[in-house]
Design a protein that fits this description.
- The complex is a heterodimer of chains A (about 120) and B (about 110).
- Chain A contains no helices and eleven strands.
- Chain A is mainly β and about 120 residues long.
- In chain A, strands 2, 4, 5, 6, 9, 10 and 11 form a seven-stranded mixed β-sheet that branches.
- In chain A, a hairpin with a 4-residue loop joins strand 7 and strand 8.
- Chain B is globular, with a radius of gyration of 13 Å.
- The N and C termini of chain B lie far apart (about 35 Å).
- Classes of the chains: A mainly beta (about 120), B mainly beta (about 110).
- The interface between A and B is medium-sized, with 21 and 19 residues.
């Protein structure tokens, strides 16, 4: 059974940092292109970041809204993907989902809430 | 960046109705258009990929069509479990979601 479990969310002040972790199982993680997608309180979905597989040199891509502040990384030995979020803004408040892309976002985690507020 | 304009934002319909949801891209996305269904408190669920390919296990009342910049999701005969929010996603150039269509029971 495929599982993706996000952890690390919470309440954080503007300007601070937070690191999300997505632990996966049930598929060959090392070959997977992994992503973070977020959903705002207004229910708008936004793609955040992508990291490709080792065969693609672990290439990374980011939405303009987070470029320079967020960093996606992975540890194939732990079948995990991470999102380091720095200089957080109130507009980063959202549910953050970890998801795999294979012609589409096929498997998703349950999501983790990040609230940026003073 | 490619922008996706999804319409309508809200749709009120009855069981048995045929409904269509549209997504318009700001440029040609070469049929790299997916559709998702989301219910309250759940992650999005994949329905259709690359315009018209039905995901395994999705009922045949769901179908997709389109090309270039214009794409459509059709539900031929609404069932009670279909009342949810639907999103399109382009993956021709990075990834952009539409704003969603909330399908409600009339």
């Amino acid at each position: 059974e495929v599982q993706l479990v996000e952890t690390g969310g919470g309440l954080v002040q503007p300007g601070k940092s937070l690191k999300l972790t997505c632990a996966t199982s049930g598929f060959t993680f090392s070959n997977a292109w992994m992503h973070w997608v977020r959903q705002s309180p207004e229910k708008q979905l936004e793609w955040v970041a992508q990291i490709k597989a080792k065969s693609n040199n672990y290439a990374t891509y980011y939405a303009e809204s987070v470029k320079g502040r967020f960093t996606i990384s992975r540890d194939d030995s732990k079948s995990s993907v991470y999102l380091q979020m720095n200089s957080l803004k109130e507009e980063d408040t959202a549910i953050y989902y970890c998801t795999r892309f294979n012609y589409y976002f096929d498997y998703w985690g349950q999501g983790v809430m990040v609230t940026v507020s003073s | 960046d490619i922008q996706m304009t999804q319409s309508p934002s809200f749709l009120s319909a009855s069981v048995g109705d045929r409904v269509t949801i549209n997504c318009k891209a700001s440029q040609n996305i070469n049929k790299y258009l997916n559709w998702y269904q989301q219910k309250l408190g759940e992650a999005p669920k994949r329905l259709i990929y690359n315009t018209n390919n039905l995901q395994t296990g999705i009922p045949s009342r769901f179908s997709g069509s389109g090309s270039g910049t214009d794409y459509t999701l059709t539900i031929s005969s609404l069932q009670p479990e279909d009342f949810a929010t639907y999103f399109c996603l382009q993956h021709n150039s990075l990834y952009t979601f539409g704003a969603g269509t909330k399908l409600e029971l009339k």
